[in-house]
Amino acid sequence: MSVTVDGDKSGSVPARLRKVLRGPRAEKVPALVGTACTFIGLIDIAAGVFPRFRASRFHDFVEVLPGTFGPLSAALSLSVGVLLLLLAHGLKRHKRRAWRAAVILLPVGAVAQFFYRHSAIGVLLSLVLLALLLRHRKEFSALPDPRSRWRALANFVLMGAGSILLGLVIVSAHPRTVIGSPSLSDRLEHVLLGLFGVEGPIGYGGSVSWTVGYSLGALGLLTAVTTIYLAFRPEHPVARLTEDDEARLRELLARHGSRDSLGHFALRRDKGVVFSPSGKAAVTYRVVSGVMLASGDPIGDVEAWPGAIERFMDEAKAHSWTPAVMGCSETGGQVWTRETGLDALELGDEAVVDVADFSLSGRAMRNVRQMVKRIERNGYETRVRRARDVSEAEMERIRQAAADWRGTDTERGFSMALGRIGDPGDGDAVIATAHKVDEDTETSPYGDLKAIIHFVPWGTDGMSLELMRRDRAADPGMNELLIVAALQASPQLGVKRVSLNFAMFRSALARGEKLGAGPVLRVWRGLLVFLSRWFQIESLYKFNAKFQPRWEPRFVVYRSTGDLPRIGFAAMQAEGFVNLSLPRPFRRRAARTARPCAHITPQTGEQGMRAA
């Protein structure tokens, strides 16, 4: 397949590729500087805490200085060390603000090193790092990450806990000068009072009392100042789709939406978007923990994909974000790797059912057929409709039921979830519902509604599973019932293909259980089966296989192998399986513990992610 950049055949693709391939060399200086900053920060902290660490041949020099100059220098050295540790990660990520702060702090730390620890080597190390920062200042130009004032409270909690732990070390680092034998509770009380600048119950001989007092006060002041700064600095909001962005994406999907089953999920309103120069293609993304996560293939004309990909990579470089793509198709993976120099790894397979080939007859479908017949005999009926054909009153009941039946505090899904039902712009979505009249129908806020499936459009002749929810009191097998009902109703809806769940590592599970599988493959399958206790890898694959789908491979695109753990963790955050955000006031508690790592958990019908 020949791909041009928005019609440009001038050979600019190799130039972009060379620019990306220069990345590893460009990363060396910031990585070295960040590591050095961590090392010097630890030296500064050790110099301010441990008496033996600061002993030197120049120690007598301090005798001619004012009595409190040494303790003040210790507190200053300690504060600079803590701040340098906090800045090290930002320096590794090329952050401009981290560079500015380090340029100010290093000379201050060098002065504190000289007057308290009296170490010429410590001063020299700080000045060498300062010179390195000034020499390579152009490497540190990355813009700030998205942020909110919740960071202030998180900083207060983490810095407060760190200050208490470090304070206990400071209080206990002078055993020869402590008066008496204070208990752990006395030490903790001394630390807590010292953080507020109040003298505690522990007494020390000589000038150690001043040193401990100033150091604890410095930690408390540092916690307060950083928290106040984060609370009052301007917010840098996370990118969101604007109305204009959404309208442009819908136009692209109307022309090219049949290419990728995940295309409609680009309309999640908590994603950002970059368009190609011609506007004929786009890449949607979310930034999580410094990782710029795209999902699925680019939207729009394949010929314009390279332009959108270049804009995506430029945005990642401008902020020093780690670029990654979750769940792209084979064609998408080929374009991404060719245009950027990134690597691709097969993540699993998407289950796609061709409606014309689906039938409940035959031995392979016996279990599904028997389950569906049993549920129908129990009095359940199904309805499959376009969202625009559902009345507003019923749609409101569906929305409420979907929210109340969710098994987690937070909405799951990112790459293969839309996060809304019944939006006016999603009239082509398909909703399948299960109903049964029983003794609870009159009192239930959902009436006779027992289960829900929501599909989003996949072009003009397909649909893609978005979520499934059910009443916990309903009979088992609601998932199978509604999927079969949706497949049987598809011809009347003009649907020819249906995308179901994503099965991670499906090929390894399938090949590992076959006769003749090698020992490595069997061990790998055994590990996946073991992990399925928590992540339902095997059960989701077997659930998908019930419907005899064809399997379409999906890939993760990444920069280097070392980025994979970080990308995986960021993806888990984006999908809602790892929640580091602060709890919302009065958030509804989950009725039961969530079962992780599946867009649909077959046992409960909870929403999860269709791709890890």
Automatic annotation (TrEMBL):
State the UniProt keywords alphabetically: Cell membrane, Membrane, Transmembrane, Transmembrane helix
Q: Where is this region: Disordered?
A: 593-612
Subcellular location field: Cell membrane
Answer yes or no on keyword Transmembrane: yes
Give the signal peptide as a residue range, or say none if absent: none
Transmembrane portions of the chain? 29-50, 70-91, 98-114, 120-136, 156-174, 212-232
Record membrane topology: Multi-pass membrane protein
The record's InterPro entries line, in alphabetical order, gives:
LPG_synthase_C (IPR024320), PG_lysyltransferase (IPR051211), tRNA-synt_2_TM (IPR031553)
Keyword rRNA processing annotated = no
In what residue span(s) does the Lysyl-tRNA synthetase N-terminal transmembrane region domain sit?
A: 26-229
Q: Where is the Phosphatidylglycerol lysyltransferase C-terminal domain?
A: 250-558
Question: Which Pfam families does the UniProt entry name for this protein?
Answer: LPG_synthase_C (PF09924), tRNA-synt_2_TM (PF16995)
What the entry lists under PANTHER family is as follows: PHOSPHATIDYLGLYCEROL LYSYLTRANSFERASE
Q: What is this protein called?
A: Phosphatidylglycerol lysyltransferase domain-containing protein
Instruction: Say which species the protein is native to.
Output: Streptomyces coeruleoprunus
